[in-house]
Each structure stands twice: as structure tokens, then as C-alpha cells.
Amino acid sequence: MTQTTNRFFDDVAKLVTDAAGVAQGLGREVETVVRARMESFLADMDLVKREEFEVVRDMAAAARAENEALKTRLDALEARLTKLEGGKSDLSETLIAGDPSGPAVG
Questions:
Q1: DSSP secondary structure of 66-103
Q2: What are phi and psi of 70, to 5 degrees?
Q3: Taking the model in full, what pTM does it have?
Q4: Whether the predicted pLDDT of 15 surpasses 90
Q5: Span 32-59, mean pLDDT?
Q6: pLDDT tens-digit map of 28-40
Q7: Residue 10: pLDDT above 90?
Q8: What is the largest CA-CA distance in the chain?
Q9: CA atoms within 13 A on the CB side of 27
Q10: Whole-angstrom Cα distance, residue 9 to residue 51?
Q11: Do 18 and 10 meet the contact criterion of CB atoms below 8 Å apart?
């Protein structure tokens, strides 16, 4: 009887070990399928990758800084023009109003 009991426990242990191996393999397979479906779903949504987003964000920040620098330069040039003209209206108001007697643009 002892030998029969040991063989029974050996068979149960082998069955449990095999079942654990199958469960691990099944888990990996499910993970692979889910990952592939998620990647397909995200690709269909036309989302940008984080790296691309960060590059565009940095480009926008650089453009904003350049815009501020150009605005500062324009303000300085307008002040200089106003000083040279003896206090006449500033250039941006002339250009926006479309004053025909204003400076030619182009």
C-alpha cells in the first residue's frame, strides 16, 4: 500500500507540475495576444508617440521664444522710427489702419 500511495502522490505532483507549465504557457500566449491587439488598437487611433510629442513641444517652445525675440526687436525698431519721425504714430498702428500715407510695405 505504501508503494501505491507514493506512486499516487508522484502522479499527482507530476500532474500539478504539468498543469502549472501549461498555465504559464497559456498566460504568455494571452499576454502576447492582448499586447498585439492593444498595439493594433492604438495604431488605428492614430496617436503620436511620446518622443514625437516631445519634439513638437520643444519646437513650439523654440518658436514661441523666437516670436518673443522678434516682438522685442520690432518694438525697438518702432521706438527708433518714432524717435526719428519726431513722435508720429507708431508703425504697427499705421500698417493695421491701412493709412495710405504710411510707409510702403513690401
A1: HHHHHHHHHHHHHHHHHHHHTS---HHHHHHHT-TTS-
A2: -65, -35
A3: 0.44
A4: no
A5: 92
A6: 999 999 999 998 8
A7: no
A8: 119
A9: 6
A10: 56
A11: no
